[in-house]
Design goal:
By secondary structure, the chain is an alpha/beta fold. It has one domain: Thiamin diphosphate (ThDP)-binding fold, Pyr/PP domains (Rossmann fold, 3-Layer(aba) Sandwich). It has a 5-stranded parallel β-sheet with strand order 1-2-3-7-6, sandwiched between helices. The longest helix has 26 residues. Bound molecules: thiamine diphosphate (TPP) and magnesium ion. The site of thiamine diphosphate (TPP) has 13 residues, from strand 4.
């Protein structure tokens, strides 16, 4: 990567962190309703993996989707407005935190059913192969989704039909209040791929360079050989599962210990050591991210709620209208 590209990835991670810290404040002020799950601590996974993609590659994830949304290039304004339930939000204020979407950026959400996005990721890969595109789908899921039947059905079809699919398990060691040790058998989660003769890899998700390297290998396999891969990135979430989580299932000491491996601090140190960035530039990036987040709150507050007739739009896709607007691909 060039120095500019490295700085861009640092900026993206900082923007995600500051955006979500601002979300938490607004949530606590009662401005945001519904579920809201932050990605704080996992930024390197979305930013690193999405950074190796090309323009035709497709992305889909679960409900912890703010990081992926910003990493694909969605604006803070459309994301914050969505959290506020405003009409200027990416889903016209009707989706909220769990349903960020940007089809124009090949980002297919934002899904609330654990594991529900995994067959859809297989479908995206199927479509790419069917349309003869040299591209792949990237499907993110949590450690709590690996034992869902839908995930295994998806893996089976990906392997059987040799689909260009990459599954990224973001192992943050908890599914709500249930620790990995209490929910999953087997030595590695990515090893679920063995049953389907799929390649798999387990790596440190907090290290952006590692995430890029490992994802790039899987993406190349998908594009050159049309074969699927399961990746497991080990990471950690520093905040509660959602906004109301007393966190009785883990100790404060555990969280503090994990904070020593903060992905942003780690990458920041790399860039300092490499002489790519100075402390002063980092502060400027941080200040700009804070201002952007705060401006997005102003934007959201000033935006209107969706009009009543919007209740009935976007409920089902009208094929004819959709295809006329977006074309076959
Ligand atoms: C099918 C289904 N079962 C249960 C739930 C309730 N639920 C919401 S989040 C969650 C935990 C999932 O954890 P994980 O997959 O590790 O993702 P993380 O929250 O750590 O990102 C559960 C059980 C759900 N949304 N869908
Ligand atoms: Mg988890």
């Amino acid at each position: 990567m060039s120095a500019g590209e490295k700085i861009d990835l640092f900026t993206q991670m900082v923007r995600i962190r500051r955006f979500e810290e601002r979300c938490i404040r607004s949530y606590q002020q009662g401005k945001i309703g519904g579920f809201c799950h932050t990605y704080i601590g996992q930024e390197s996974v979305a930013v690193g993996s999405i950074s190796v993609l090309d323009k035709d590659d497709q992305i889909i994830t679960a409900y912890r989707d703010h990081g992926h949304a910003l990493a694909v290039g969605m604006t803070m304004n459309e994301c914050m407005a969505e959290l506020y339930g405003k009409f200027t939000g990416c889903s016209k204020g009707k989706g909220g935190s769990m349903h960020f979407f940007a089809p124009d950026k090949r980002f297919w959400g934002g899904h609330g059913i654990v594991g529900g996005q995994t067959p859809l990721g297989a479908g995206l890969a199927f479509a790419l192969k069917y349309l003869d595109k040299k591209a792949c789908s990237l499907t993110y899921l949590g450690d709590g989704a690996v034992n869902q039947g839908a995930f295994h059905e998806a893996l089976n079809l990906c392997a059987l039909w040799k689909l260009p699919a990459v599954y990224i398990i973001e192992n943050n060691y908890y599914s709500m209040g249930t620790s990995l040790l209490r929910s999953s058998a087997g030595e590695s989660l990515a090893g679920r791929g063995i049953g389907y003769d799929m390649e798999y890899e387990v790596a440190n998700g907090n290290d952006l360079y590692t995430v890029r390297e490992v994802t790039a290998r899987a993406v190349e396999r998908a594009k050159k050989e049309s074969l699927p891969t399961v990746l497991e990135f080990q990471t950690y979430r520093y905040r509660g599962h959602s906004m109301s989580d007393p966190e009785t299932y883990r100790t404060k000491d555990e969280v503090e210990e994990k904070k020593k491996f903060d992905p942003i601090a780690l990458y920041q140190q790399y860039l300092l050591d490499e002489g790519v960035l100075t402390e002063k530039q980092m502060e400027e990036i941080d200040e700009a991210a804070k201002k952007e987040a705060s401006d997005s709150v102003d934007f959201a507050e000033e935006s209107p709620f969706p009009p009543e007739e919007e209740l009935y739009t976007d409920v089902y896709v009208n094929d004819e209208i959709y295809l006329a607007k977006h074309g076959q691909a």
